[in-house]
Amino acid sequence: MEYQFSNRISSLQPSLVREILKATANPEVIPFAAGNPAPDAFPVAEMQRIIPEILRENPIGALQYSITEGYGPLRDACKALVENHYHIPMRDNELIVISGAQQGADLASKIFVNEGDTVLCEDPSFIGCLNCFRSYHCNLVGIEMEQDGVNLEKLEEAMRQPNVKLFYTIPNFQNPTGITTSEYKRREILRLANKYHVMVLEDNPYGDLRFAGQPVPSIKSMDENGMVIYVGSFSKILAPGVRVGFVVAPKPVIAKMTVGKQCADVHTNILAQMACERWLAGSGLEEHLARIAAIYGKKCRLMLDCIQQEFAPSVQYTTPEGGLFLWCTLPEGADMLGFCNKAVEKKVAVVPGIAFLADESSPCQSFRMNFSTPTDEAIVKGVKILGQLTKELF
Amino acid sequence: MEYQFSNRISSLQPSLVREILKATANPEVIPFAAGNPAPDAFPVAEMQRIIPEILRENPIGALQYSITEGYGPLRDACKALVENHYHIPMRDNELIVISGAQQGADLASKIFVNEGDTVLCEDPSFIGCLNCFRSYHCNLVGIEMEQDGVNLEKLEEAMRQPNVKLFYTIPNFQNPTGITTSEYKRREILRLANKYHVMVLEDNPYGDLRFAGQPVPSIKSMDENGMVIYVGSFSKILAPGVRVGFVVAPKPVIAKMTVGKQCADVHTNILAQMACERWLAGSGLEEHLARIAAIYGKKCRLMLDCIQQEFAPSVQYTTPEGGLFLWCTLPEGADMLGFCNKAVEKKVAVVPGIAFLADESSPCQSFRMNFSTPTDEAIVKGVKILGQLTKELF
Q: Which of A226, A240, A264 lies nearest to residue B103, judging by beta carbons?
């Protein structure tokens, strides 16, 4: 049987990262290609206490259908978190609980992007969301990243075109580069969004994983005119397996997202929502975040130290102030894909940079490295192997 | 700010059922409008044992990212269930775990339906899936339901048109009518699907809730040519809050669905998947299903007995052999919406039939009643109130 698939899906390939992740399920391969949060950052003991508690106290509530907008007490807790912890005024905004931050990109696309419309993204950017935009059969346009965020001239030039509906940005410790967008550029992004009536989709999964430098206000916190859709996630602050996130946006946007979510998955797993709520209600959030940021910081510094010692000096790399990733760039003319393949042969997996480009056929000398998944020993060993390769080749 | 939403979402209204559900959150209203499984059918004690067990034995596995296709042991368990319990050969098929059956309709639409393509459905049908199809901006065409399934002449006439991509059917105890499609019509549906190259989306959330009559083979079990996408769900056999279901379809279809799901929500809540797997591994499934079918059967018979005693004889109603719903039809010329509104005023909620039509502006004399959510006392009291109304009006 030859199936005639929709246009939107025919062109879409399985995420390269996920395919690599599967290939590297082999425990002998050092997982610099992964994107998993550090398991020792999970609040295991709390979950082991909280979830059985919920099942004892309110088993029917934890098993029955719930409403699409999200479990009421969790919505309230997230609103408080948004105002008090993320310093975003709820004012004219509303909040919906979603099944992980990925669903935020899906719902934003569903409600704003007609087929053929343009979506702008940082280039490179998070492949999961790029594929999501592609799944709406849009025109995906990448805007070059610089050390402090996107190139503003190119962003304005792109926004000036017709039918540009969204600009997707990860301002804190971006995936894959680790770059943080400066406060100046955040204000300019918002100014341009207002000028050209382009919605900003601000994805902040990593914001709480800051281990160096000073926090920068979110774009949403500056948003006076309802141009920003803010996506938060429990994946990195609690755990990704729960698949819980939230969106803060103006009320009419959340109303449409609610309709879209009804059609997509009715509501998010209710026990997970209750667990997130109870976990937030425990007073230890700031301490927990300080503890996990320290874990990530230690791992990042270790990887950076090893890179400095082991890599050929011609290889450049970013120095993230938080998050899970750093971005290495091989010297001009180097065969990046060849390098990544040789690395896998030597049982070290990194992700080729092209996976993160709006146009995967663009030239790319970079690859992404994750420091949260591998053990400290694996970081030392893996970077040594990669370093030898760089010295042999460059 | 005036937002310019996508065409697909602009025309879509919030699900009437969900809005009514919210309105009837008032505990004084008798909830015949609901669609919730009976809480006493949930395996509460098992979940209270299983979930803490998983969190003790494999907390990191239960919290970390997982793969899009689903938790391996659950996929294996579902494949065994499909073959041994639902009598569907896996042969050339594959299986993906999804975030509730609703996601099955979403992914089927995503991968098969271009904007403007036609999706066929039973008329009336489940509003959640109708809205899902609408969210892909398709041409939704309803095929008249008869006592033994859709009108086959009208189905063939509709399939003969160009760009028909899916036919959506709930063959067992359909929502909203409670009708079961006969084996003859199932074979004919499959024959027509093969003849006109239209995929059949077979949704079977209620199949295990049979309390009368004999099981009828699924359309998927007869599918030699890979034309059927079968959607199963844990919502009614275990509990809906877990948001876990599965799709069985030919390998190329599942491969595309996996790509679509990566873009939508990455993967389904992993603790819920592990809980479903461990629950299935407990040997009590058939006993559990017999127990819950008895609960639903008792409630259905009570409602039918009350209706027979209390309703005006001019009101017709279906006699389901399973499931959660029955369908009442007022006499020709009656003001159905007026009746439903008067019922809510008297604190009994039913769902106006138009909510379930492909074209909500079609004439409709029917309303849906749910017998699984209300208590026995509420069934007796609520039907008496509705009965008085029917006697006053008709």
A: A264
pTM: predicted TM-score of the whole model, two decimal places:
0.96
Q: What is the pLDDT of residues A282-306, one digit of tens each?
A: 979 999 999 999 999 999 999 999 9
| Strand segments (E) across chain A | 30-31, 93-98, 118-123, 139-146, 149-150, 164-169, 199-203, 228-233, 245-250, 316-317, 325-329, 348-349, 351-352, 366-370
The separation between CA B196 and the C-alpha centre of its own chain, rounded to angstroms, equals 25
Average pLDDT score, chain B: 95
Lowest mean pLDDT among A139-148, B162-171, B186-195, B356-365: B356-365
Contact A269 B242 (CB under 8 A): yes
Domain boundaries, chain B: 12-42+286-393, 46-281
Contacts of B9 in chain A (CB under 8 A): 110-111, 256, 259-260
pLDDT digits (tens, 9 = 90+) for A196-223: 999 999 999 999 999 999 999 999 999 9
CA–CA distance, A272 with A64 (Å, rounded to integer): 13
Here the tokens at position B95 are: 């299986």
Partners of B97 in the β-ladder: B246
- The token duo for B58 is 């494999």
Q: What is the dotted CATH code of the domain comprising A12-43+286-393?
A: 3.90.1150.10
Per CATH, A12-43+286-393 and A45-281 having the same topology is answered no
Q: Which residues contact B96 (CB under 8 A, 6 or more apart)?
A: B68, B69, B70, B75, B246, B247, B254, B257, B258, B261
Please tell me the predicted confidence (pLDDT) of residue B12: 82
Which of A13, A243, A274, A292 is the best substitution to test chain B (most B C-beta atoms within 10 A)? A243
User: Which architecture, in CATH terms, is B12-42+286-393?
Assistant: Alpha-Beta Complex (3.90)
Which residues of chain B have a CB within 8 Å of the CB of A135?
Answer: 110, 259-260, 263
Q: Which CATH class is domain A45-281?
A: alpha beta
- Interface check for A174 against chain B (CB to CB < 8 A): the answer is no
